[in-house]
Specification:
This protein is of the alpha+beta class. The chain has helices spanning 18-28, 84-93, 134-139, 143-154, 169-185, 196-206, 250-265, 283-288, 307-316, 327-353; strands at residues 31-39, 42-52, 60-63, 72-76, 96-102, 119-128, 157-163, 210-217, 220-229, 233-241, 269-274, 294-304. Strands 1, 2, 3, 4, 5, 6, 7, 8, 9, 10, 11 and 12 form a twelve-stranded mixed sheet that branches. It is globular.
Length: 354
């Protein structure tokens, strides 16, 4: 079951850095917002993006972008609690009426928030890292995982490791093509397709704190993964593969090489992320559990700052029943649905005419 990591004091992460906010701020057309909030129990930092609600003048909403965030305890003791009322006050000053928070399961910082304001969203997986030879690392894996790694080696898969400052336009294009094709095959939500600029900005803004692992057969890219780096924690951030080469087990191999590389580099933890559902039998979660046995709880919070205005705007825009908490997200999905319906109608008309 879920293992809680201790709350780490004074530990910032790449996900709460200004440069990370800039990546997603440009992608979402939103502005970074870094708040320092002090109480008698401690000093907290929380990093957000905020943007105007479409067609509503100077009314805003805020959120933690893709990845992880939540309050960071900069100074204080482990029994400190996040001063929610002071946080709400800071949001009100900026005409922000709601806030969606994704906590950091590898920090357990949801414990800083009042229990009534958080909800379990899904599980994620971590692995503790140590300096090991590849032979000893193989011995630590299950029989099936060990077989897939050896199979990959026998089939001639090579893994290259490129630091962010080494990346060139051809590397970017190769990764992006793999990633885009994966999203297309998975019929992913439009938001997760990303654009080339968003991927490029990861390397532009994160530089030395990002690595690209590439699995190749001869000169062909068959899989690639982006890892983000803190002082002691590494994050498996984005990954893509060519399904035609699935029997070469390139993703398994990349994760094996990453565990070996970062363990010998002195990193302490690899956070592999989670599955697609709040379900311990989720297939993606179980794939990641082949490489890590620590199961973390990933919490979110849906904070309404101005309840009256929030409900009014949802009713005004006819999105009261949308599953999306943020108004902009609900409006965007409503528009996408209308476009989808329109395309179906156009297709039917074309068939009738033909």
């Amino acid at each position: 079951m879920a293992e809680k990591e201790p709350i780490l004091i004074g530990v910032d992460t790449i996900y709460t850095s200004l440069n990370y906010l800039k990546i997603w701020g440009e992608y979402d057309n939103a502005e970074p917002l870094e708040l320092l909030i002090s109480s008698d129990k401690g000093v907290f930092k929380i990093s957000l993006l905020y943007k105007k609600i479409n067609s509503e003048g100077e009314i805003y909403e805020s959120y933690v972008p893709y990845g992880y965030g939540g309050p960071i305890l900069i100074e204080g003791k482990e029994d400190a609690t996040f001063p929610v009322e002071l946080f709400l006050l800071e949001l009100r000053k900026r005409n922000i009426i709601d806030c969606f928070i994704r906590f950091s399961p590898f920090l357990s910082n949801h414990l800083l928030f009042p229990q009534e304001l958080i909800e379990l969203n899904r599980y994620t997986v971590s692995r503790r890292l140590e300096s090991l030879s590849k032979e000893d690392l193989l011995k630590s894996l299950s029989k099936g995982t060990k077989w897939s790694i050896k199979k990959s080696m026998d089939l001639g898969v090579k893994v290259l490791i490129l630091n962010g400052i080494q990346i060139n336009p051809i590397d970017l294009e190769n990764f992006y093509n793999l990633y885009y094709n994966n999203m297309k095959l998975a019929n992913a939500d439009d938001y997760y397709y990303l654009n080339y600029k968003c991927v490029e900005n990861h390397f532009k803004y994160l530089g030395n704190f990002i690595d690209l692992f590439v699995a190749k057969v001869k000169d062909e890219w068959i899989a690639s993964s982006i890892f983000l780096k803190d002082d002691s924690i590494v994050h498996y951030h984005l990954s893509a593969s060519d399904y035609r080469y699935s029997k070469f087990y390139p993703v398994d191999r990349i994760l094996f090489e990453a565990i070996n590389f970062y363990g010998n580099e002195g990193k302490q933890l690899l956070h592999l992320g989670g599955g697609l559902e709040l379900d311990l039998s989720d297939s993606l979660l179980n794939f990641k559990m082949k490489f890590g046995k620590i199961v973390n709880e990933f919490f979110i919070s849906k904070v309404i700052v101005d309840e009256k205005l929030y409900k009014y705007l949802r009713a005004k825009n006819k999105i009261e029943n949308s599953k999306y908490f943020l108004i902009n997200d609900a409006l965007k999905r409503k528009l996408w649905k209308l476009v989808e319906i329109l395309n179906i109608i156009i297709t039917k008309i074309k068939k009738v005419i033909a």
